[in-house]
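Sequence in, structure out.
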Amino acid sequence: MTRSIPPDQVEKYSSAATLSDMEIFVFPDLLYSLVLANILSPKIWAWRQDPWFAGIEKLTPYRRVLRLKQFIIDHYQFNLDLDTWGLTTKERELRRFAPFMDEATIARSNALFGYEGDRYYFDLDIRRHFGLDKYDSNIIPYWKTETVEAMDAFRYRDGYSIGAGECVSLSTLYAAAMFIICGIPLDNIFLLATPLHSQNFVLLGDGILTNNRRLLTKAMWFNGTELTQKAQRALRHEQVTIVAHHTGWMHVVYPNASIDPSAYDRMVGALRAFLSTPLNMSVMAAFLRQHADRQCCFQFRHSLHGRPHYIPAETVYRYEVGSALKVGTSPIARLLDEIDEDEFFPDPIESRVVLNDLEEFFRRHPVDVRDPAQVEQLLEQIPCKHFRALDSVRAIVEFAHLEPRLPDQAGPKHFLKPSPLPIRLGMSREEIRDVLESLRDSHPVADLAFYAWRDMSCTDWTPFMRAALERSPVSIEGARSLSDEEVEARLRQWPDESIYDGARAAQPDEVWNYRRGDGFEKAVCLANILHARRPDSMVEIVAEGPDVSLRVGTHSSLWRSTKNLWGDWRGEEKVRG
């Protein structure tokens, strides 16, 4: 017997069907419920049969993760198209979330409600960066997070040949796939959400950060490349708002935390170690690669025809762009041998530090940038006034050591009794489902997982229908020029094929975007469009196995379904507009 959701919980459970960034911020239980929905999905388990993963169990854990990374790169694009899931307004969303979080708190922590982060984001202009400047200032997108099924279904959309998803979709996909495909325990996977991004920190070796489709190791974090700079933006410029784990979560706003404090401490220690490194020649070279304006203070010495010659650092960095050799990662002489002789000077360039000498200093004295005395000792090796004037101390320290802004720094937290999910490596998908099913009455995240998974055979239909009739603007807009009869005809023309298996159901905008759906899903999509046109009309949908009947006001229609659902839903009152 499906448990009815209490009225004061319907908003949260309804959000499990749409999983927008804003909904996850207000209801942090939702983030891990999507991870579990992906773990429950047969889609990711089927990857095990793909030839790409043949013999993966023989690889080291890190090699398994690299194999997974390439699979995700090959099969998914990053998508942040504002038109994918439509638009809403600030006023509408603030009214909706007013019982749970006040406007000022939302504005401080969400990019769409006034948040601009540090100076970086202020300079960037958030609305222009995300293409929102073409709309009124109160218009914001529904940045909905996709399940793996909805990600795969992007291939049915114009302009896509493979799957796609936004950052939360990719981070939760990675978390589930690392467990299922790579054999990484859930205990070692932490999800980190910021106002503008979502990524994972995985306790494997020195640590691994996921970043959309790609991965960063500690060595990559300090390589100074443009790709790494982009991947660093969230942790360098933003407050971490949510840390989610199989034991619970910690949120920047809420005073209570459900995460196991020992697990959280373990993650924090590993993350801080990941984001800090002693300053040596490799790191200094990466620093100069990232901060090209400081290269003018340095030069390299190289022997040509038995005599020392000198070359500006910026020239060497220009040559490394087209070379397999990089400054700081290989003997510098090998790279300098590739450079044309006419780039060198026979005498030292005035007022420039010789990096070869600095390399020798680093060999004898690796610098801990957290120690002011050691930093001062380093600066004695760099007698360049220009370099000091550019606030070099701050820049070097920030490059080699980042202190992440975590939720516990925003105020003390009261740790509740953690409820770790008893999901272990070696369990089958069916065993995991049975475990989660047994926990539903006592574990909110386990219960929400079935709503995020969209299983209509064992969930209350009210949250799903509320999401369908309140937050599906794409199908409404797409049908705007069609009559009621033309909308129904259009839906019937599309393949009777659901993107979800079994008793799981797509939301109206998934049906409209992917141009396909089971009869039950098409009936719900039509209900959304007709209800938007006649919002005072009652909505009634009845499923009796293969037969689904829909009534919206005076309209009635019959649909055939293969989902074998038995149940009904009647809008007992006007659904909010």
